[in-house]
What we know:
The protein has 474 residues and is an alpha/beta fold. It folds into three domains: 2-124, HUPs (Rossmann fold, 3-Layer(aba) Sandwich), CATH 3.40.50; 194-288, Serine Threonine Protein Phosphatase 5, Tetratricopeptide repeat, CATH 1.25.40.80; 299-464, Orthogonal Bundle (DNA Cyclobutane Dipyrimidine Photolyase, subunit A, domain 3). It has helices spanning 17-23, 37-40, 47-65, 78-89, 102-114, 144-153, 194-207, 212-215, 236-241, 246-259, 263-288, 310-318, 324-336, 341-354, 359-369, 375-386, 401-408, 411-417, 449-464, and strands at 2-7, 29-36, 72-76, 91-97, 119-122. It has a five-stranded parallel beta sheet, sandwiched between helices. Helix 10 runs antiparallel to helix 11. It is globular and about 75 Å long.
Amino acid sequence: MSVIHWFRRDLRVQDNTALHAALKSGQPVVPVFILDEGILKSPRAGAQRAVFLFHALQSLDDRLRSYGTRLLLRRGHPQQILPALVEEMGAEAVYLNADYSPYARARDATIVSMLTIPLHVYDDVMLIPPQAVFTKQGKPYTVFTPYRKTWSLQPKPPVSTLAISAGMFHLLTNIASEPLPTPDATLSLPEASEDAAHAFLDAFVSQDLRHYATTRNHLVINPFVIPRPEGSSYLSPYLRLGLLSPRQAYQRAQAAHETASTPDEHHSIDTWINELAWRDFYMQVLYHFPHVLTRDFKPQYGTLAWDNDPALLHAWQAGQTGYPIIDAPMRQMNAIGWMPNRARMIVASFLCKDLLIHWKAGEDYFMQHLIDGDPAANNGGWQWAAGTGTDAQPFYRIFNPVTQSQNFAEPEYLRFWLPELKDVADEDIHAPWMMAAPPPGYPHPIVDHAQAREHTLAVFRQLRHTVKDPEEDS
């Protein structure tokens, strides 16, 4: 007899809530991953995140082999694969960690109805599960600041330190398994492993956490190199697939609090903990308001007259808008599956507010290309930028791409991703079209920002009729 642990977005052995519960059951644990055809064939799935996943599966298999077992891989629809595997293995129970996306919840509900053995589901992917943080009126939060206050008062679960041994796992002798997918070696992606996740966490805590508030907006060429550049934590891909647990990240931040010596250091640590809270916030928004994946959170924006020009969308996707602060991050994402957080806000604002293209086009494109593409965080960020979501940026706040570039983009970053600008001086690189002789091969801006801003404000005003006086560009 045995029990099954179904790995999903928890591709680690340490501090894995459902896996550790299975290991404590006293029955040999069958470690399973199902390559879900519903996800793999989704139009929102992309090669870069798939390759990152394949590397993570190889790493997990290597870790499991150190315990005398391996990862049992099957491919297909979990609603068919899992019941068949239960029968094949004679399993007495299935253990898994909850996933809160609408697709995952519908899939798991179907599986529950099909299984005749216990299904043990645990909260693992969030620090505080979506059913645990409500307003005094018993409603889910839709504004971050009050959510964060309530969230901060909730006790966070500790990191599990279960001692794992080979005898806890099923040996899987003579059990058929799909071969692990062979990743595309031509893509330049970071190492996808539990060890790499902890190496990044260790480096961040020791080098940058205490200065995070001032370095978080740095635009770096490639964070996944050695030596690791300063700035952000670069942990989002590892949290996305569960190569690192949010509890492990939170525990390290809390420990840093105890040794921080200045108010600025405490502020920086709190600023990063805020990012973990934002992660939970957007997951609980998606859980309670699943319609946000397909339409505006605020229904009054459903009739907004977006322009949705396909030629402008293509230029944005290709990094050919003529604005270096837009084009460099877009080409970066296209090449390595990652983009700095500040750049994500800038390019999203440009698509929605300068080009007046619906946020869904940008959200889909990001999900197709980002190795850390997460339905909740991605949707929350895009609706924030568009002004249509929970706790969103006001519609009249529109990023000025030149000002944003001057404030946050080092010339070296722009030159690396835009070789057409390799000979442009620092003082000209943020607006090369203003030069007496603009660099050949680099496009002229596809829109005039000032004119585009006024057009967007007029469209939003037409919908809202009465609004506050617009603020100056950020």
